[in-house]
Amino acid sequence: ALFARIFWSLILQIYCMLLAATVFAVGLVATSHLPDGCPISLGSGTRNRGRTPIIQALQSGAGPEGGGMVDGARIGPPPDMPSLMLNNRIVYLGMPINAAVSELIVGELLYLQYDSSEKPVLMYINSPGTTTEDGLPVGFETEAFAIADTMSYIRPPIHTVCVGKAYGLAAMLLASGEKGHRSALQYTSVMLHQPRGQQAQGQASDIAIKAREVLLNRQVALEMMASATGQPIDKLTADTNRCLYLDAQQAVDYGIVDKIITKSDKVTASLSDDMSSMSRGLG
């Protein structure tokens, strides 16, 4: 019985040694076929072979970058639409202007300047301004002023395109684009009106302070619009006392945009060429 126990103990040790050797050999064969840059973990240490970072690409697939391309195949989930547009230097303003929208647009513009201070930025505008479709205020005028200030602050030229509508201070942002590169699609609508202001509550002195702020914001908006369109402030003041609706051609005549883009225009082809050259090719 003692001999049998010794015999089977030796057999078990030899089997364990063979199994460990087999696992080690398989590991060597697998690591020899890994691409460049893939980190290999041996025991508690990690060494980098200076090869393509597949593991990093897999990990980044869940990140904000939306994955990447490895050997022609996408790794990770596809990026969201705003990221795709931002990658091609496109900024889309398609909501009423409030604090959250202003923060997003300003952040995108600042990032695009960091990315390249020379390439133009294409801003599409389809917004009712700082109010809803029913005319109810949802944001302060200063939110639109922040976007306009950032547009003039950054070095890349801003090419604005109106799609759908540009009402109120959204029309001011449309007109604040680079001169000669402010466009509108054929059936867009532009509307000018004076700031609506938030509903003031409280003591009479507080309401008076708020009223002075609304009038000051109106004057600032008129000055910015006059600088962008070339129209005198007196005319803008008279035109914005009531809602003034303009079609695409009237917006060109008013100085809000420089041209109308239609499908047959050569401008469309030039814009496509510009966008292709600006694209950095997301996978």
The average pLDDT score comes to 77
What profile does the largest beta sheet have?
7 strands, mixed
- Percent helix, as a range, is 40-55%
Based on CA atoms alone, the radius of gyration comes out at: 30 Å
Tell me the number of helical segments per DSSP (H or I, 4 or more residues long): 10
Order of helices and strands: HEEHEEHEHEHEHEEHHEHEH
User: Alpha-carbon distance between the termini?
Assistant: 68 Å
Give a count of the beta strands, DSSP E runs of length 2 or more. 11
Shape descriptor reads elongated
**Which class do the helix and strand fractions yield?**
alpha/beta
Low-confidence sequence ranges:
39-65, 278-283
Please report which band the strand proportion falls in: under 5%, 5-15%, 15-25%, 25-35%, 35-45% or over 45%: 15-25%
